[in-house]
Every structure is written in C-alpha cells, then in structure tokens.
From TrEMBL, chain A:
The keyword Transmembrane helix applies. It is found in: Cell membrane. The keyword Phosphoprotein does not apply. InterPro entries: Cyt-d_ubiquinol_oxidase_su_1 (IPR002585). This is Cytochrome ubiquinol oxidase subunit I. PANTHER family: CYTOCHROME BD UBIQUINOL OXIDASE SUBUNIT 1 (PTHR30365:SF15), CYTOCHROME D UBIQUINOL OXIDASE (PTHR30365). GO terms for cellular component: cytochrome complex; plasma membrane. Belongs to the cytochrome ubiquinol oxidase subunit 1 family. The chain crosses the membrane at residues 12-33, 53-71, 91-115, 127-150, 184-205, 217-238, 258-283, 295-313, 342-365. Residues 376-396 are annotated as: Disordered.
UniProtKB/TrEMBL annotation, chain B:
It holds the Pfam family Cyt_bd_oxida_II. One of its GO terms (biological process) is aerobic electron transport chain. It comes from the Bacteria. It is a multi-pass membrane protein. This is Cytochrome d ubiquinol oxidase subunit II. Belongs to the cytochrome ubiquinol oxidase subunit 2 family. PANTHER family: CYTOCHROME BD2 SUBUNIT II. GO terms for cellular component: cytochrome complex; plasma membrane. The chain crosses the membrane at residues 6-31, 52-78, 90-110, 122-144, 156-178, 190-212, 224-244. The keyword Transmembrane applies. InterPro entries: Cyt-d_oxidase_su2 (IPR003317). Keywords: Cell membrane, Membrane, Transmembrane, Transmembrane helix. One of its GO terms (molecular function) is electron transfer activity.
Amino acid sequence: MNVLDLARLQFAVTGSLHFLFVVLTLGLAPLVAIMQTRHAITGRPIFARMTRFWGQIYVINYALGIFTGLVMEFQFGLSWSGLTHYAGDVFGAPLAIETLVAFFLESTFLGLWIFGWNRLPKGLHLACIWLVTLTAYASAFWIMAANSFLQNPVGSVLRDGRLVLTDFGALLTNPTFVMALPHVLGAGMFAGSFVIIGASAYHLFRRTAEQEFFRRSLRTGVVWAFIGSTLTIGFGYAQFGFIGALQPHKFEGVLPGLALGLMITIGQLTQFAVMLVLLPLLIRDVLARARWLHPILMLMTPLPFVAAILGWLTREVGRQPWLIYGRLGVADAMTPGLTKGMVTLSFAAFAGVLGLLALVDYLLIARTVRRGPGQADLGAPAPDGPGRAAAPALSL
Amino acid sequence: MEIIWLAVLAVLLVGYFALEGFDIGLGMMLPALARARERAGEPGTRQDHRDLLVAGMAPFVLANEVWLVALAGTLVGAFPALEGPLLGGLYPLVVALLVAWILRDAGLWFRRRIDGPGWRACWDAVLCAGSWGLALTWGAILAAVVRGLPAQPFDLAGLLGGAVVAAVFTLHGRAFAAWRLPPAGGASRLLLTGVLAGLPAAASLAVTAGHVLGHAASPATLNVLGFIALPVTPILVAAQVWVWRTFRPARSTGAAARVPSFF
C-alpha cells in the first residue's frame, strides 16, 4: 500500500465510522423531539419515559458522532490540502456554514437539553430538542451540499488554476444534492427506527416488566421505518435518472458495482418487509404479541446501517479516480510532503482510538437497552428529601 | 471583507482559549482539586469531589469546545489557501491534538455510564490525560505557528509554549471551579484568568495576522459566507448567553443543585 492508498483508506474508515453514528443521530433526533412534544401536550408519563430512554440512546450515540466528526473536519487539511487549495473557494463555503450556522448551535442546544433537564422551564426545554433536530438536519444539508459538489462540480469556473465560486445557488440545486439529501435523511430514519424496533423486540421477547412501553415504541418504530424506508428507496431510485449523464462510469468498478447491488438488495427487501409485513401486523398489536418474530426483528437491526455504509461506498468509490469529478484527481489532491510514516501513524491513532471508543459506545447502548427505561440517567429528577441535598455526587 | 473574517477568526480562536481553557484546566487539575477539597475537610470521598468538579463544568463543555469546530470551519471557508499548509505543516501536532481532544471528551461522556468506582476512576484518568494532551499540544502548536511552522515542532520552544498554555489553563480551571462550586464567588478572578488564557492565542494571531489576510478566499465567497452567517450571529450569541444564564451558580441552589449530572 502506498501513501495515497493509506490516506484514502484512513478517510474511508473514519468516514464510515462517522456515518454509522450520524445516521442514527439523524433518525432518532426528530423521534425524541416528537416524544417530548407528545408529553408536553398530553402530560402522560409514558411519553416522558420514552423521551428519556430513547433520548439516552440518542445522546450516547451522539458522542461518537462528535469524535469521528472532529477527525473528518481536520482530515481535509491534514491529508487533502490539494482540495482546499484548488476548490476551497467553493467547497469551503458550505463546510464553513455547516460549522458556524449548524453544528455550533446544535452542540450548544444539545448541552442545554441534556443539562437543562429539570432546570429549564418545560417549554424552553422542549424547544431545545427541536432546535437540536433542526440544526442536525441543517448540518446534513450543508455537508451533503459540499459532498454533492465533489460529485458534480457546479457553480464555479476555473480561473488561474483554481476554482472560483460563480453561482452559489447552483450548489443548492445540484441534482446530486437535491435527490441525495432526502435519500440520506430517509436512511437516518430507517436506521433509527430499526434500533427502536430491535430494542423493543428484545424487551417484548424477554417479557420484561415494560411491555406497554415497548409495545408503543414498537408501533412508533414501525411507522417511522415505513416513512424512512419509503423515502430512502424512492430517492435512491430517483438518482438513476441523472447519474448516467453526470457520472457515466460510476458503477463500473468492482467495488461500487457490488456495493450498489448489495445496498439495493438489502434496502429493497427490508422495505418490503416493513411495508408488507411489519406495518400490517401493527393491527391489533399482532407484531408485539408474535413472540417468534421478535428474534428476527432483533437480528434485522444492523441492516439499514450496513446498507448506509454500502451506499457511501458506492457514491464515493464510484467517484474515483476523481476527488472533484472530472476536475481534480485524488492523487493530485493529497497534501504535498505527506509520507507513508505520517499517514500510518495517524491512521493507527485515529482508527485505534475511534474503533475502541465505538466499541465501548455500542456496548453502552446495548447496556442501556438491556436495563430498560427504569434506569435511564438522562433527565433523572432530583432525589426526594432534603437529606440527600448535600450528597456531592450530584450536580450543581 | 477579509478584515471582518480575520476578526471572526480572532474571536473564535481567543474565545475558544478563554472558554474551553477552563474546561481543559479543570480536567488537568481534576485529581489535584479533588484532593484539595478532601484535605479541606469537605464531606464525601475523593471520587465524590471529582464528580462534583466534573458536574460543575459539564453544562459548559459542549458549548465551549464547539468554538474550535467553528474556527476550523471558518479557516476552510474564509481562508482556504491557509488551511492546507497550516494543518499539513502541523501534521503530528494536529493528530496529537485530535486524539487528546477525543480522549478528553470520551472521559466526559462515558464516566457516568456505568456505576462503579473502577469504571469512573478509569475515565477520569482518561479525562485528565486528554486535558493535559490538549494544553501541551496547543502550546506547541502556537509556538510552531509563531515561528512559521518549523519542521521539528517538538523542541524546547514547543515545550515552553506547552508549559505556558498549561499554566494559564490550570489557573483558569482553578478559578472556574472556585466560581462554580459552593461557596461560589470570584467572578472577577474568573474573568481575569479568562483574559490570561486567551492571551497566548491572541499573541500568536497578532504576529501572523498579515500572513493570514493574504490567504483569504475570493470576495464572492466571503460575501456568500457573510450573507448566510451574519443573520445567524445574534442566535449564536444568544445561545451562548443562554448557557451561561442557565448554569450560573446563583441558579444552582435548592432543587436545581440536586439534579444528577449526566457527565
């Protein structure tokens, strides 16, 4: 493996890890917001419990989204400075807007939501999770806009060897953006719903004390899965309409071809299963009572995640050997002076640390699921009685 | 327009040092501050004191560390020609900074996810080590930037930079803990250490400002960025102010003091 292969592999590994967590964040955020809204409207305790339990899974997952995202943001400069040198004027704008306008607010509001529980007025606390959701989706919007520019470099002209921004609007009406954004957001809902379905199936199968909680969660998950999978599939197929004209050789390589075929197989079969089996079985809660089905539902949990990674492999490997399609080759975009030793070291550090933390994170999510809603830390109220007021293990 | 974006860059960089500086400093001082509280006869075990200290900074960390993310974004968007040479020239330091940052954050996010003294003490150690890593690499990075990115940044000047940043951060972290924990007080001291924590960053930016200006994006790009970022700026400021209003010590008595912390 030469230095270019290593740098590409590093980007692919950290990018895939990032997306595994981001896709769940995007899928769970609106659901948690809806649960909290239902609690605000109805005042029923079950919705508060659902908000806390699924919210805790959402925030544990969120941590790895941040860690991997940090590496992604800095990796452009570390390994691919040719990209910002050549197209920074165009590609940099949506990235900058993402950090300033979207992620800055997302992180700030998430802190207010997590630590403002039982402190902020109820209405403002609810507003926080909606703002987190809104800014998370804004993040996805700008990142996808930047990525779509790499697939189909619109809105710019070459001047003195560098791309100059001429039409910002064209970045936002780029067909590879307009069709891919709902596809990705749908994939998020798809993945989020399958975590809810799998976790609910676990508790229903084990016949834990939380039957009502997970019957209801299962229903929510299946409806969400239906919306998400339909969006994903619809906007997935819609991309074939223009991809032949924009990137004619996209699926000709071995890896993109295989990844595309496998993604469609998984996505289509799973969508059929949701639409034709899971959704109808919600009638009279048959799905919640059909215990023999629950292990299958648990085993299906990773499917949307696998499909999502395959989708990214198709999109990004299919772009090769270009970094900016038709304009800048990947080899030409690598940071000058980058040595094999440097990339090996950083790859080992990033992959080792992030891989280990991802594993810990998934174990913590599994543990949260297993312990059930009774033991969620997130939004835990102050213990009763003044006797424990001085206990230093508490917050301020 | 370049001047405005240089100002944005300066605000984000100095703001990051002044705000995240106390989180990093508190993380570095976590064992020492916990021991000090124990020696002072405060009730609770050493782990309880660490929990209290971490809970004190927890509501601020997410709102503080994001200043650096925004800084990197601004660098890519408004000064793209600078981003590559800067990060490429600082390669080993930036990798070290990211690893330290991730470990510090992992310590925060994971420490309370499993009950039990071993688990929490382990992540507290990671938090502390990550915080030290952050301070030392930041010092070395500033020292390297001022000297025009030397090939070997791990030298005496780099160490000296690390020592300076570590010193101001620990002071700042200590001041924050004093302000945040009961008996809360010393707001002016916190302000002073905040200025002190921002100084190394401000100084290195002042030295390199001319160089930075020469690498701005085209006016068209800067206009687009300004057009989108400007209307949102009041919201960014309001969100930060909201964090400080919500979690200031005066609001942290009575029932609010008994709410368990998530970090």
